[in-house]
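Morning. Coffee machine broken again, so started the prediction first thing and wrote up yesterday's gels while waiting. Chain of 245 residues, entered below exactly as on the submission form.
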Amino acid sequence: MTATVPAPGTLPPALGSARAGKTPTAEGSALQAVFLDMDGTLVDTEGFWWEVEVEVFASLGHTLDEAWRHVVVGGPMTRSAGFLIEATGAAITLAELTVLLNEGFEERIGRDLPLMPGAERLLAELSRHRVPTALVSASHRRIIDRVLDVLGPHHFHLSIAGDEVPRTKPHPDPYLHAAAGLGVDPARCAVVEDTATGVAAGEAAGCHVVAVPSVAPIAPAARRTVVNSLEEVDLPFLRGLVIGR
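Came back before lunch.
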């Protein structure tokens, strides 16, 4: 499944059941759409990225400091890879490292791709109630499409990849593009994220954010609700975020 990233105020080609001018709505609710992050939110892969980074840099003769894991989690590959090159002094370009990391990650998820607790049930519930849903990730399109094969592309009306927007998380662009693509108001949408970087992007876009921390703690804040697991999140919960504020 691929997606054309829409310009603000325009709609992409039809994806799933979302069609220009006829985007399904969450009937009977102020909630218009749900935007979900991928790594660490729906699939238990945040640790995979770190494992691949450790392996790649080991092959280059460098050992990564465990403390750096919190620096690179949740951000765009350009930021995390750039940081690791600078921190280690590895003799590799950003473009070369990006290829190695994507290849290593694809190989890793090809062996195993566990879902986060509650993810399968939540996606099925949103689909059953025809809630417009977008997968919004900082990962590249080639990775998203591999993961969509496992999650089920029919669960999403739209997907936005990190290499399809000028600025990815923590900037609001990915979520604003998702809202434009579905023809919805960000203020009436819920974002589900697992990292501070993703939370910042959702909040900057004006969405209601549910944080499900995966690697580092996230504190509650205005327009932000923190839960321990997706098992605590269902459609009435998400609707309540918008109605209650």
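Residues 137 and 181 are 15 Å apart (CA to CA). Going to sketch it on the whiteboard this afternoon.
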